Please model this.
Amino acid sequence: MIYLIYGSPCSGKSTYIKEHMKRGDLVCDVDLIYSAISGQNPHDADLYAHEVACKLNGALKDIIRKRDGGWENAYEVSIANTKEKLQMEKECIKADECIFIDTPYEVCMERAKERPFYFQWIIQEWFETGDLHE
Model:
């Protein structure tokens, strides 16, 4: 199965995956890839390493889309905030199921206080311009 896990930044997508994945499952999350290749906090990325992480994330998406390898389940993390973007991502990886982590704005903003300042702006933008939380 391929799962597309989506929601606002700081909504709990990574936590959901950690609670549901099994050994041997794949996780396609640019933050985790960034942390793996840089050894740094995934929420405080430098531009150049983050660019490489995005390229590796794309390669992993391709592996998932082709169902290449012996894995059973794959989880892709998305911050798509519109039905159109979500549909495009779903089709890109040929997701079997989309799971919305529906966390209230106030909770996301509270969690963002532990991250760099710009996360609050990203969350606000996600809620103001998206159509998935209505």
